[in-house]
Amino acid sequence: MGNGWLMALVTSTLFNATPLALAAMGGVLSERAGVVNIALEGFILLGAFVGFYFGLHSVFMGVLAVVVAGALFGLLHAFFTQKARMNPVVSGLGLNLLIAGATRYLALRLFPQGDHIAGLSPNLFLSLAAVLPFLLVFTLQQTKFGLRLRAVGENPESARMAGISPTLPRYMAVMLSGVCASIAGAYLSMADAHTFTSDMSAGKGYVALAAVIFGKWNPLGAAGGALFFGFFYALQTQLQINQYHLNWLGVEWTSPFLLDCLPYAMTLLALVSVIGRATPPAALSQEE
Question: What's the structural domain count of the chain?
Answer without folding.
Answer: 1
